[in-house]
Amino acid sequence: MKFFVDTADTADIKELAATGLLDGVTTNPSLILKAGRPMKDVIAEICDLVEGPVSAEVTATEADAMIAEGRSLAAIADNIAVKLPLTLDGLKACRTLTDEGRMVNVTLCFSANQALLAAKAGASFISPFIGRLDDINIDGMDLIREIRIIYDNYGFETEILAASIRSANHVKDCALVGADVATVPPAVLKGLVKHPLTDKGLEQFLSDWAKTGQSIL
Ligand code: G3P
Fold first, then answer.
1. What is the pTM (predicted TM-score) of this model?
2. Which residues are identified as catalytic?
């Protein structure tokens, strides 16, 4: 499973990119607001920091305007994935931009049928929102399972990019059910490495090693 980070905070992205574990970045208008900087500047900086896909979301709602915005965002760098909402206009724009050879991430997916339509429109990525379904007492992970089955039934190459991830358990469950990508908030991503028994075990090893009086180099 690939790891994307869901943020427009370039300090976090720089730190995570340095680990060699980061496969891409997703942003959305709310994350751009949080960054408090001009969108195209932030996106260009992110594209310099990571080689993988960087999702940049359009804000138009009508297909032709979405296509124009998508082309403008895609001109920022070769690794831009144009992010489009899951509406009929978004799917029309997806087909056009995909036919032009651009990566498209169809976002705000909350049903398996929506995901099926995005795959038929040629999307590179579909973004089902797990946490926001959990918020309304619908199991978000069931949606990832259903999309996995449907895409495998028909050999769709659209990658399942699990979004709205809120916890380490979400990440683990995404991997278990076969999501292609998880886009994870920086704090959750950094937290995945932590385990108290790892810390305790390391402390013991280092203390015993010190008692040997040896050094490896
Ligand atoms: O990028 C979309 C998504 O990951 C949003 O997450 O936590 O705002 O539902 P959240």
1. 0.96
2. 83
